[in-house]
Fold this protein.
Amino acid sequence: MIPQPSWITVLIALPTLVPLLGAALTLLRGRSPTFQRAVSVGAIGVALIASSMMLYLTSVHGPFAVHVGGWGDRDGGGSPLGITLVVDPLAALMLVVSTTVLLCVVVYAIGQGIRDGTTEQPVSIFLPTYLILTAGVCNAFLAGDLFNLYVSFEVLLAASFVLLTLGASAERVRAGASYVMVSMVSSLIFLAGIAFAYATTGTLNLAEMAVRLDAVPDGTRNALYAVLLVAFGIKAAVFPLSTWLPDSYPTAPAPVTAVFAGLLTKVGVYAIIRAHSLLFPGGAMDTVLMVAGLLTMFVGIFGAIAQSDVKRLLSFTLVSHIGYMIFGIAVGSLESTSAAIYYVAHHILVQTTLFLVVGLIERQAGSSSLRRLGGLIASPLLAVLFLIPALNLGGIPPFSGFIGKVALLQAGTADGSVLSWILVGGGVVTSLLTLYVMARIWTKGFWRPRADAPEGDMAASTPSALVEEGTDVLLDDREDVGRMPVTMVLPTAAMVAVGLALTVWAGPIFEFTDSGAHGVLDRAVYISTVLGPGGGR
């Protein structure tokens, strides 16, 4: 590890501070949409550049840590106090993927105009809230202590509620209230876990907790681990803690649903990776995680099969594919952890892209219900934008979904346990069923004539019909139906291209995820980065 220059401190803080500053500026200039848009795109662009620089630096020089406030007697072996930010290959990769998604989605949202509701929607509040969400996501990946991670989750919760209820329709308020209640329960459990952790170890710094937990009795450690797993499992939508998600996400505007589906659950998965490898190594809960991963796969994909609305269908597939990530984490080998990291990156990109495409389908056809869709093949561009990520999610070779799943299945077979083999079989079945539900959307929404759809005439009828059904998009005027603004199409195409890049450069990316997995599993690297040489003794 090279000596850390002062500018590294600024670089690590940029992905959090710049969006927060941008949120303040856009809130103050709410009457100037052009200014809001420029600042929002610029702030997230700066966060992406800073994240990319950190990705390069960590790949070459290893992890870096910043202790904000400068408290603590580190030379004398004292506990580091204040806020600790840590960036290693895993955190840097998550930052780059997340800021890429956030940038594309904000451009898409600007192109859409957040106009899938009435003209009375408070559009001026969208961009400031979105920037606060961006800061929360970035800070969660950088957090080096439990309380800072908790604060990041709370920032996400506050911003998420505003974005979910944008427009204040009855359906969105109900979904937002449900989401907030579940999130508050998760936060209370997490807060109890923080209190438990501090009472047990006397610190909330992750590196120092990792050292001190080694001396804690196994029963106490496992109890603390279980509390944190429940809190993170709700955030990640791991079964049986996932029932809230399909009812909450589909009601929001397309850009909001896209960024929620792509990113927010992965923050929970990231927290599980850190807890599993850094704080509680040894596999005490691996059997529980494997069973949860298998049930998450099956419950999610069977739920998707039963859906007729594309947004709800994709929400259930989102749940099912969380199971693959939990599978990789639970196996706990270098290969499985690397595959899980790769799959997280893949799923963020592909799931976000599919929800953006659904927004285009709503704009093109006025509905997201398979009972009303048909004939979308008349728009070849829309067909291509859907088909590529759909095949990718289904695991068709040579796409990144296939590569990630094969890597996970190989790691499972290498583990050799009975439960691992069951999960391998479950992963194959889930992949085939995912391909089936994607084929349903393709055949019914694109190839079937719209006149043959059971309710094919309703989405093109009066706006009141769209409101009554609740599954269709109500546009400001009927002329918007059938139009796909270029500022919505280009970000979606860019997301498709980034997903394809994950396939084309799978080899180098897997080399990086191998490095990230090694850094995750070798606790000494993380601990010495935060506490200094000898800090793990």
In short: The two ends are 19 Å apart (CA to CA). The first strand starts at residue 64 and ends at 68. The chain is about 70% helix and 0% strand.
